[in-house]
Write the structure tokens for this entry.
Amino acid sequence: MNKAESQQVADHLELCGYQATDMLHKANLVVLNTCVVRQSAEGKVLGMLGYLKGMKRQKSDLSILVTGCFVDSDIKQLEKSFPHVDLFFKPSDYIGLLNWAEKQAIVVPEGIVCLHPRQSTKVSAFIPIIQGCNNFCSYCIVPYRRGRERSRPIDEVVCEVTGLAGRGAKEVTLLGQNVNSYGHDLAAPSNLSDLLTALNDIFGLARIRFLTNHPKDMSQQLIQTIASLDKVCKHINLPLQAGNDDVLKAMRRGYTAEQYRQLVNNIRKYIPDVALSTDIIVGFPDESDEQFEQTLAMLEEILFDTVHVATYSPRSSTAAAREYEDNIPPGIKKERLYKVEEMQTKIAAAINSRLVGKTVEVLVEGKKGDKWYGRTRSNKLVFFESGDDCLGRLVYVTIIKTSPWALQA
Ligand code: SAM
Ligand code: SF4
């Protein structure tokens, strides 16, 4: 989501005449796109704001704009605390950004917000389809910073993806905090199945991905739609967070470990070759060793292709921060995190090793050194050598070597 929004900021600014640079010190405008989902991310934002303050002292005409989840509802207070920042604007508030640009006497072309301005013509594009979240998991700051769910109309998304496919994009990833609750808030209510079905017909498009899914919104209709559409990649990110029912309840996730297990069984029944990834939080308040062991046991049982694991970080304004003491010592949190990583490394090594000798479809995204790289439909990173220009092509390669993180072909 951050990558997609950074790209949209860049697209808007390029249409206003700005040019992107890789060199921070050459820039006369810096937009800092922020994440504060954990304290460590917020710490990085504060560090960068301090650094930019120093830069502005050396270069007084430098403009600094800040967006993303760091921008809470009290913008006045942020302006007071960080007077060197020229503008704070909320995630995807491009009107706020353009109003600021106009005040700097920059010519803003008419209508560029509504048109979802020119996205770069990359092979693979990120498409936000729903903003915000209605779930209020007890640990999560997202609903406070990004507000309630707002879906983009189907026609608008189809129009954008058709344009991208016409300019050479082969793959789109539909994004949302809760992408599988897409559409319930639209004037003509629809759902993710309807959107996937509409996108599957777009000429030139080869692959459709989507993330992230909430287990409680993974409907039977959606599972069957994913199974039936040829362009929809059989890869589902389904955050579990914890394997113990009391912890799940305290997290306010709205499902039990058994319900999650049944859901996975059902997904595998209809999509036998599905690749599954998940998110785990370790060290939630009061999580005992036994409760944590149940999370490990779930990982061992379900065998995810990928696991994103984080240590619990209390976020102000969330229910967990208000109601529970952050009472798992940092050393134990880290130990649990390493245990998850260690177990997942073994699981991923075993899953990937089964691919040796198999021929897989790879969408080539770029070159690192002398090797092309891209992803399989199951989202596995593959490296291979070829004298041809493979960029943007779908190629078929045979896997010769694997590791828990990547495949060589
Ligand atoms: N909507 C998705 C879901 O239902 O799980 C995930 C979106 S969330 C912004 C991304 C991930 O960040 C979560 O899955 C969770 O594992 C992690 N996360 C969120 N809040 C956290 C916190 N306070 N401490 C640690 N990890 C957190
Ligand atoms: Fe946060 Fe995801 Fe829960 Fe929404 S569903 S509150 S984004 S963890």
